[in-house]
UniProtKB/TrEMBL annotation:
CDD domains associated with the record: PBP2_HisGL1 (cd13591)
Pathway connected to this protein: Amino-acid biosynthesis; L-histidine biosynthesis; L-histidine from 5-phospho-alpha-D-ribose 1-diphosphate: step 1/9
EC class (word): transferase
Molecular-function annotations in GO: ATP phosphoribosyltransferase activity
Reaction(s) catalysed (UniProt annotation): 1-(5-phospho-beta-D-ribosyl)-ATP + diphosphate = 5-phospho-alpha-D-ribose 1-diphosphate + ATP
Organismal lineage: Bacteria, Bacillati, Actinomycetota, Actinomycetes, Kitasatosporales
Cofactor dependence: Mg(2+)
Domain of life: Bacteria
Protein name as it appears in the record: ATP phosphoribosyltransferase
Claim: Ribonucleoprotein is one of the keywords in the record: no
Keywords, alphabetical: Amino-acid biosynthesis, ATP-binding, Cytoplasm, Glycosyltransferase, Histidine biosynthesis, Magnesium, Metal-binding, Nucleotide-binding, Transferase
Gene assigned in the entry: hisG
Source organism of the structure: Streptomyces cyanogenus
Length: 282
C-alpha cells in the first residue's frame, strides 16, 4: 500500500484534497481525521502539518508527500521534488518599512523576523551577509511595528498583508514556491505505484490546463488551421461527408482557447467547439 502525506491545514490543504479527489482518490470526510485508507486504490493518506511532511518522507516511513517547495527547502530534509502541482503559488521575499532598506547589503547587522529560518539563514550565508534571524510562528508582518525586527522575510502572494502592515518588498525574490510532490532523495524512481500516482496527478493538471477543440475547415485551409492547433502530438483529421471539408480535433491550452477560436474563424473554420477534459493519461 502506497503511504502518502497530505497537508492537514493551511493554504495547501484544501487544494491538495481537491486535486486528489479529482484524481479518483478517496479523501477524509472531516478535518479531524488524521489518516484514512483508500482500499480500492491501495493508498493510505496521512494528514500532517505541511511543515512536517518533508521530514516524514525523508525518514522513509511515508513514500511520498504533498508540501510547498519553500517548506521543503526550509526543512533541510533529505527529500526531493518530483512533480510541481501549480497551486499555492507564492514568492518568498524580504520586506521592510519604505525607505529603510534597498537591497541585501542593508541587512548587515540587522534583525530579520521569519517563520522560514532555514531559507533565510541559507540565503544570508550564501550571500555573505551577517544578520540575525528571529523565528516567529506567523503573522510576521507585525514584528516590525512591535520592534522585534527591522526586516521580515515572508511568503508573498497578492501583497495585501504587506500593504496592510505598511511594508514594502525589497531586493530580488529569495525563491518562488508552489505545491509539489516530494519523495525521499534517491528513492526508486520506477516504483510502479508511485508512477501510477504521479500519472493520475499529471492527468488532473492536463485536464485543468487544456480543453478539447473541434472544428470543420476546408482542405485548402487545413495546414494553416493545424498550425494554430498543433495538439500535443498531432491533431486528428477526419473526412466530412461534404467534399472538400475536414473535421479537426486537437487539445489546446485553455487560456488560449478564445484567441485560437477567433483565429480559426478568421481563416474560414466553422462549427468551432471547445469541451472540457475531465481526466486523461498522456
Ligand atoms: N497567501 C498564500 N498564498 C499562496 N500560498 C501560500 C500563502 N500562504 C502560505 N502559502 C503557502 O502555503 C505553504 C505554507 O503552508 P502552512 O500551512 O504552513 O501555512 P499557511 O498556509 O500560511 O497556514 P497557517 O499559517 O494558517 O498555518 C507554503 O508553501 C506557502 O508558500
Ligand atoms: O501576499 P498575501 O496575499 O497577503 O499572502 C501572504 C500572506 O499569507 C500568509 O499568511 P497567513 O494568512 O497564512 O498567516 P500567517 O502569517 O500566520 O501564516 C503568509 O504568511 C503571508 O502573511
Ligand atoms: Mg501562514
Amino acid at each position: 500500500m502506497l503511504r502518502i502525506a497530505v497537508p492537514n491545514k493551511g493554504s495547501l490543504s484544501g487544494p491538495a484534497a481537491e486535486m486528489l479527489h479529482e484524481a479518483g482518490y478517496q479523501q477524509r470526510r472531516e478535518s479531524k481525521e488524521l489518516r484514512i485508507v483508500d482500499p480500492e486504490n491501495e493508498v493510505e493518506f496521512f494528514y500532517l502539518r505541511p511543515r512536517d511532511i518533508a521530514i516524514y518522507v525523508s525518514s522513509g516511513r511515508l513514500d511520498i508527500g504533498i508540501t510547498g517547495r519553500d517548506l521543503l527547502i526550509d526543512s533541510g530534509a533529505d527529500a526531493e521534488e518530483i512533480l510541481p502541482l501549480g497551486f499555492a503559488r507564492s514568492t518568498f521575499r524580504f520586506a521592510a518599512k519604505p525607505g529603510t532598506a534597498d537591497g541585501l547589503q542593508d541587512l548587515k547587522g540587522r534583525t530579520v523576523a521569519t517563520s522560514y529560518e532555514g531559507i533565510v539563514q541559507k540565503h544570508l550565508a550564501d550571500s555573505g551577509v551577517d544578520a540575525s534571524v528571529v523565528h516567529l510562528d506567523g503573522a510576521v508582518e507585525t514584528a516590525i511595528e512591535l520592534g522585534v525586527a527591522e526586516v521580515i522575510a515572508d511568503v508573498v502572494e497578492t501583497g495585501t498583508s504587506l500593504r496592510n502592515a505598511g511594508l514594502e518588498v525589497f531586493g530580488e525574490p529569495i525563491m518562488k514556491s508552489e505545491a509539489i510532490v516530494v519523495r525521499r532523495t534517491g528513492a526508486d524512481a520506477e516504483e510502479p505505484k508511485v508512477q501510477q500516482f504521479l500519472r493520475r496527478l499529471q492527468g488532473v493538471l492536463v485536464a485543468r490546463t487544456y480543453v478539447m477543440m473541434d472544428y470543420d475547415c476546408r482542405v485548402e485551409q487545413l495546414e494553416r488551421a493545424v498550425a494554430l492547433t498543433p495538439g500535443l502530438e498531432s491533431p486528428t483529421v477526419s473526412p466530412l461527408h461534404n467534399e472538400g471539408w475536414v473535421a479537426v480535433r486537437a487539445m489546446v491550452p485553455a487560456k488560449e482557447a478564445q484567441r485560437i477560436m477567433d483565429d480559426l474563424y478568421a481563416i474560414g473554420a466553422r462549427a468551432i467547439l471547445t469541451t472540457a477534459i475531465h481526466a486523461c493519461r498522456l
